[in-house]
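Much of the work behind modern protein science is quiet bookkeeping, done one molecule at a time. The fold becomes a row of whole numbers, each drawn from a learned catalogue of backbone shapes. The protein below has been through that process, and both of its lines are reproduced in full.
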Amino acid sequence: MAISDQVEYSIKEAQDSLRNALAFAARSERPMVCKAIADTIASLENVVSVDSLLDNLDKHVEELKEQD
């Protein structure tokens, strides 16, 4: 089951906000804060990417089941 458009949109909005926060943090915060923000951005990107990968995997599994 794919991530709904609304959820994907919200994730992208969150990433945009975090990137903005990272830009400000890079100028004035400790490196640990910047790393935590960057890790969160990467985690959100992974959610969308892995969901797409799992959708493709499900599709291939269904095709293999139909062949049997």
User: Anything to note?
Assistant: The chain has one domain: 5-67.
